[in-house]
Amino acid sequence: MTTERQAHWENVYSTKGETEVSWFQESPQPSLDLMALVGAKADSAIIDIGGGASRLVDALLAEGFTDISVLDLSAEALDVAHARLGDAGHRVKWIVDDATEWEPPQLYDVWHDRAAFHFLNGEDQRQAYLQRVREGLRTGGYIIMGTFALDGPERCSGLPVTRYSTESLSAFLGEGFALVDSRRHEHATPWGAVQRFVFGTFKRVS
């Protein structure tokens, strides 16, 4: 399954430009606002799961963050982001791996995912993901999850997705995570369509 999913995303990023995918954001302001909400500091360890060629890493570097990791299945996507950043890209830890199989090499203060989780449609995949969260996010750290809302798209990039509410995200994470913030976001694609997201931010309490 990982090989098939990886091949899919490599094809997407090798055949489409950065601004030709529905999830492109010129400015990832919703994510930056939530980073500020949880009090992320310059030396906070931040990981962006499914970051691909997202410009969140650019914004974090511009704001002075020094411990940034970006994980994605697609090496092509990470190469695009690295090349865009130039020399600054050497300050980022680029990780080509599957978020359901990866072994976190450190503890993170902020775990951010706006792109990967809603593609995990099997309960075994979701539980494997949660295990990585528990291995990689320190107690007292925060997880920011942006997923398609219940009235959001049913498919993305030709693949089925699972849609969520704040309540279902809370139920997925379980008692060890306390809800800090819930908000909706209407994302405009490069061609003007609107995709409805829900962002749930949780503190790991145990």
The first-to-last residue Cα distance is 32 Å
SSE order, as H and E? HHEHEHEEHEEEHEE
Q: What is the helix content?
A: 25-40%
In terms of DSSP E residues, the strand content is 25-35%
Count of individual helical segments: 6
Radius of gyration: 16 Å
Widest beta sheet: strand line-up: 3-2-1-4-5-9-8
Number of strands: 9
Q: Would you identify the CATH H-level superfamily? A: Vaccinia Virus protein VP39
Instruction: Tell me, rounded to a whole number, the average pLDDT.
Output: 96
Main sheet makeup: 7 strands, mixed
CATH architecture level-2 label: 3-Layer(aba) Sandwich
For this structure, the CATH topology is: Rossmann fold
Number of structural units classed as domains: 1
* CATH class bucket: Alpha Beta
Residue windows where pLDDT falls under 50 for at least 5 positions: none
Keywords: Methyltransferase, Transferase
Protein name: Methyltransferase family protein
Pfam families: Methyltransf_25
Domain Methyltransferase: 46-141
Concise synopsis of the structure shown:
With 206 residues, the protein is of the alpha/beta class. Helix content is 31%, strand content 30%.
Topology, element by element:
Layout: H1 2-15, H2 29-37, E1 45-49, H3 56-62, E2 67-72, H4 75-85, E3 92-96, E4 108-113, H5 123-136, E5 137-148, E6 155-156, E7 159-160, H6 166-173, E8 177-188, E9 194-204
Parallel strand pairs: 1-2, 1-4, 2-3, 4-5
Antiparallel strand pairs: 5-9, 6-7, 8-9
Helix pairs in contact: 1-4
